[in-house]
Write a structure and sequence with these properties.
The complex is a heterodimer of chains A (136) and B (98). Chain A has one domain: DsrEFH-like (Hypothetical Protein Ychn, Chain: A). Chain A has three helices and seven strands. Chain B has three helices and five strands. With 98 residues, chain B is an alpha/beta fold. Helices cover 24% and strands 21% of the residues of chain B. A five-stranded parallel beta sheet of chain B has the order 4-3-2-1-5. The chains are: A alpha/beta (136), B alpha/beta (98). The interface between A and B is medium-sized, with 26 and 25 residues.
Chain lengths: 136, 98
């Protein structure tokens, strides 16, 4: 990690297909991952729907970009915060989300979970530590 | 005069479904498309908004969002695009609550 690396957080609050925000965010995250920064993602409000598994867009003619989230670990995007309150309001549990992992090179490439289910208060504290917040 | 009320916004982000439900009269129907289909997931809080309404959802928009039919509120009908057209034809007019 470069000495001047900043802490960047991408805050995702929109459902995946009704608007272009979710896809745009994912593209910016992947492009940004090429730069050596401390990146984390937050999913809250309807943004938690972006991570659900079983998305199938053949019938609606849209691009299914949900498999791309599983590539985030390979781009060293390993901190994915999901807000508990938003999940509960929508009746979702971790079982409804994709199982996103990253491989820890300091521990013989052991697989680790990327998703951290956090409360609003906990997420607020993580946000307060960031240098830059990007909202989508 | 019967109306088909079409809602396309998430009930967790916009109040379109509340407004449509408030205007729906006996004999009217509500069709949920795009992000509005999240309202039909029975485990979510917004499913209560469907009480007392005749509700259909567009199947391809459910599938895009990974919602399987066994997770829907009881009594909600799943339609394809042809069924969408049938609903439009069955009512006197259409109101799209954008």
């Amino acid at each position: 990690m470069a000495e001047e690396s900043k802490k960047l957080m991408y805050v995702n609050r929109r459902a995946p297909y009704g608007t272009i925000y979710a896809w745009e965010s994912l593209e910016v995250v992947l492009i940004g991952a090429a730069f050596d920064q401390d990146v984390s993602l937050a999913f809250m409000d309807d943004g938690v729907y972006q991570l659900t598994k079983g998305q199938s867009t053949e019938g609606s003619g849209m691009k299914n970009f949900s498999p791309t989230y599983s590539a985030l670990g390979d781009y060293e995007v390993t901190k994915i915060y999901v807000e508990k309150e938003s999940m509960q309001e929508r009746g979702l549990t971790l079982e409804d989300l994709q199982h996103l992992v990253w491989e820890d090179e300091d521990d013989d490439w052991a697989e680790r979970d990327s998703i951290r289910l956090v409360s609003r208060d906990e997420l607020a504290k993580v946000m307060a530590e960031q240098d830059v917040l990007f909202n989508f | 005069m019967s109306i088909l009320h079409i809602v396309n916004k998430s009930p967790y982000e916009k109040n379109s479904l509340d407004v449509a439900a408030g205007y729906a009269q006996d004999g009217d129907s509500v069709l949920l498309i795009e992000d509005a289909v999240y309202a039909a997931a029975k485990s979510g809080k917004a499913s209560a908004k469907l009480n007392g309404l005749d509700v259909s959802v567009l199947g391809s928009d459910l599938a895009a969002r990974g919602i399987s039919e066994d997770k829907l509120v009881d009594g909600v009908a799943v339609v394809d695009y042809a069924g969408f057209v049938d609903l439009v034809e069955a009512k006197d007019t259409v109101q799209s609550w954008l």
